[in-house]
Amino acid sequence: MRAIRGCVKDVSQYEVMRGVEITKCPLRYVDNATLSYIEAFTHYKQGLYPEAGGWLDQPMKALEAFQEIGHWVEILFDNGKEGTKKWQTRT
User: Any idea what DSSP says for residue 23?
Assistant: First the structure.
C-alpha cells in the first residue's frame, strides 16, 4: 500500500495543485506541526475542540489552521464531484 501511495518512491501518476506537483506520499510534504493540525481537523469537524470550552476559548492559530484546511478540503472534494480532478501521467 505504501508503494501505491508513493511513500516509497515517486509515482508515475501525479497531481498538480496550484503549480505544485504531488509526486510522493503527501505526508512527505508536511511538517510535524502541520500534520498535528490536519489530524486535529477531523476532531474539529465532529465538534471536538483542541482546548476546553467553546469556540471563543480556542486559540486563534488553531481556528485559522482549521479554516485553511477546510478550504482545501472543500476544493479537493468539489473537484472530485465535478469530475474535474485530473490525474496527469509523467512522460
Answer: -
Quick one: cell of 90?
509523467
- C-alpha distance from residue 33 to each of 2, 7, 39, 55 (Å): 22, 19, 10, 21
Identify the three-state secondary structure at position 28: helix
Q: What is the pLDDT of residues 14-65, one digit of tens each?
A: 666 666 677 777 777 778 888 889 889 989 999 899 899 888 999 999 999 9
Rg (CA), the chain: 16
| Rounded distance between C-alpha atoms, residue 75 and residue 8, angstroms | 27
Confirm if 15 and 24 have CB atoms less than 8 A apart. no
Asked whether the beta carbons of 53 and 47 are under 8 A apart, the reply is no
Give the pLDDT score at 84.
Answer: 45
Return all residues near 50 (Cβ < 8 A) that are at least 6 apart: 40, 43, 44, 58, 59, 62
pTM for the whole structure: 0.60
